[in-house]
Amino acid sequence: MDIGIIGGGATAVGLLDALAREAEAPGAVTVFEPSPHLWRGRPYAPDLDSVLVNSPPVIMSIRDGDFDHYASWLGAGDDAYVDPGIGRPLVPRARYGEYLEHTAEKAIADLRERGWQVDVVRATVVGAARTAGRPALRTGDGREHVVGQIALCVGGGTPPDHYRLEGAPGFVADPYPLARTVEDVPLDGHVAVLGSGLTAVDVVVTLAARGHTGRISLLSRTGMLPHVWQRPTAHRPRHVTVERVRALLARDGEVTLDHLAGLLREELADAGDDLGALIADLRAAPAEDPVARLRRQIAAITAPEIGRRVLQTAAHSVGPYAWRLLPERDRDRLRAQARTAISVASPMIPTNAVRLLQLFDSGQLELLAGVRDIVRDNGRFTVETGNGARHADVVVNAVNPAPHAVPPSAAGLVHDLVESGLAARHPSGGVLPADPRMHVVGDLAGGGPFIASSIPGLAAQGAAAARAVLASS
User: For the chain, how far is it from start to end, CA to CA, in angstroms?
Assistant: First the structure.
């Protein structure tokens, strides 16, 4: 058993943790990761303390099936980071990176104690081939590493450059780490932020924490903001669960959106809530004034209705499993509502929501929809919208990459994997195994849901890959 894990971020941590818990016979594993921030990945590298984890502890466990794993790791000192809105600790992302490091190091120690050889190669895998019938990985230093099985865990793509601004002075192609991004931004400069999702919220909140006095414009094609987390309640789903979905599959031989809506209707009915009212609210999201909706959702942080809470939990716990069972027509229906679905499933934390509303109310922050083009001219950027032009000094690219996008740094590797017959491209994006010795885990896995980077989803994929690796060895 000789496993090559390509990528050393959160997905690889989930895979290692599952291997350490389930492996019996000894083997060897080599992790290839060139980043200086091993185990953290791009989102959880060292950064400013104002850049917080965007989800409560219950859905941030990298150990599949153990929702208390991360919460139990958090120490008493993290009580200082309790968000007053949800009443749970929301620590800096760098602190969460420490949790990932701890989990990975503990898994490696456990594997070594049971006779495993574990190595970390600090190099990029740039190519792949078959050598004497076995997979071989080529690193940037020209070395070849023959392995028995491959786990591709390279993470998601980087923000796409829709307006061809790469290399323009004042254009930030990738906002993370935000400490680097904001240090060169003039405090009184007009900053245009591409996107209006969680990354864009991070940028705005970080600028405000730094004391930025200039205007900030969120530039969005849809004009929608993320929803706002509500305070967790004691409610635990009884109907919207993986077990109930499995029962539907066993009974009817298929699972459809109508089936899932029926489970949600039962869940809400038990609590005295109305599914119709929830659906009407979600359908109104694209047309409602985003600041008015933000204000209304902040006021509803402690509201008793469970509808959005159930959807948010289900998107991360039930969603990855249910997605694989849905017929393509139902997947297309969900893809058509992707912006609303992502907004609900990946909400912003109350602390950030309140800060955004303050900035909107003061007039320092604005949200512009319908951006047509952005050009660099005479030392500034001109932003063309349906309501006229804006001029900005700095443009920060906070656009989310497409689901299952291939990171540019992995393009050559993916090409080789496909050409060698180890992998295949999925029609809707991402990569699929084409050989039983190949495992694709995380954001790049084709055929998965468009909410690609949830920690529970990554943990579940890591555990499934560990089981597949062990079963085929």
Answer: 6
Q: Is 230 exposed, middle or buried (0-12, 13-18, 19+ CB in 10 A)?
A: buried
Angle CA(315)–CA(318)–CA(321) in degrees, nearest 5? 115
What pLDDT, on a 0 to 100 scale, did the predictor assign at position 39?
95
Question: In terms of Cα–Cα distance, which of 457, 446, 173, 123 is closest to 316?
Answer: 457
Residue 76 above 70 pLDDT? no
Global pTM value: 0.90
Cα 269 from Cα 446, distance rounded (Å): 35
The sign of the CA dihedral 436, 440, 441, 446 is negative
Helix (H, G, I), strand (E, B) or coil at 18: helix
Q: Which of 83, 409, 421 is nearest to 230 (CA)?
A: 83
Burial of 81 (C-beta count, 10 Å sphere; 0-12/13-18/19+): middle
Beta carbons of 356 and 209 less than 8 angstroms apart: no
DSSP state, residue 396: E
Task: Pick the closest to residue 168 from 426, 388, 378, 453 (CA basis).
Answer: 378
Torsion over CA: 6, 7, 8, 12 (sign): negative
Q: Are 460 and 62 in contact (CB under 8 A)?
A: no
Distance of CA 148 to the CA centre of its chain: 29
Phi, psi for residue 406 in degrees, rounded to 5? -80, 120
Q: CA-to-CA distance for 306 and 233, rounded, in angstroms?
A: 8
Three-state DSSP at 121 gives strand
Tokens of 141: 């230093």
Classify strands 394-397 and 171-172 as parallel, antiparallel or unpaired.
parallel
pLDDT tens figures, 268-296: 999 999 999 999 999 999 899 999 999 99
445 three-class SS: strand
Model confidence over 332-372: pLDDT tens digits?
Answer: 999 888 888 888 888 999 999 999 999 999 999 999 988 88
Per the listing, tokens 């998107």 go with: 315
d(CA 185, CA 284): 36
Q: Residue 467: enclosing H or E segment and its boundaries?
A: helix 455-472
CA–CA dist 327, 432 (Å, integer): 18
Name the strand (E) or helix (H) holding 2. Answer: strand 2-6
* Beta-sheet strands, E only, within 162-248: 171-172, 191-194, 216-220
Secondary structure of residue 358 in the 3-state scheme: helix
- In tens, the pLDDT along 402-445 reads 888 888 889 999 999 999 999 999 988 889 999 999 999 988 88
Nearest to 420 by CA among 138, 228, 159: 138
> Measured between alpha carbons, how far is 196 from 228 in angstroms, rounded to an integer?
13
Strands 438-440 and 28-32: unpaired
